[in-house]
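Researcher: Good morning. I'm working through a list of sequences from a screen, and I'd like to move beyond sequence-only analysis. For each chain I'm collecting a predicted structure so we can compare shapes side by side. This is the next one on the list. No need for commentary yet; just the structure.
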Amino acid sequence: MGATNWEPFTGEKLESGGFLSEITKEAMSRSGYNIQIEFLPWSRALLMIQTGEIDGLMGTYYTTERLISAAFTDSLGKTDVVFFKLNDNDAPGHYSSLHELEDFTIGNPRGYSVNPDFDQAEFLNKEEVMSSYLNLKKLLAGRVDIIVDSRETIFYLLETHFKENKNDIEAITPILETKEIYIAFSRANPEYQKLITAFNNGLQEIRNDGTYEIVKKKHKLNIID
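Model: Good morning. Structure tokens for this chain:
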């Protein structure tokens, strides 16, 4: 099983590999599977799903393009995708159309699907970066005007790596989209549908018996159910 360092959801340095790692292991174990998680760069993990070098990838958003090589489980939860700005820069604190943001440089993590409107908006000045950490660092240094990311990710980074700056940025309203979080299983594995069924059954079981909420509280994660 592949994963990326997408804190606070998954991460090599997080306890038990993070919330998604622990939930995935527990759900699969309920169906008799003992999985191993390998942390990979996001772009490499997406390629390995296509080739079948890994059976599944945790922490993915649904896109029609990914359906070609992957099939999705039931949702593990939701997160809000949000634009962020410095309090004192010229970017607006509210927008009604993406066209209102076209004069500003927007940083987004490389290989991430933000949402269809944003992904297809060629009029926007987008600047890809290797990670959410670097994206936030560029915003704080004034090298981009706006960043886009999961609300939980930015709040986590501010609390753990940029605590002195946590009052310097604000979320731009409205949210861009509330995204479901899935595991994508590789269609290159002939048993991918069996794996999806095993995970979905295990996930339902741990939701029903309270394990899901226990793990969420353990990781202090305010993920939307």
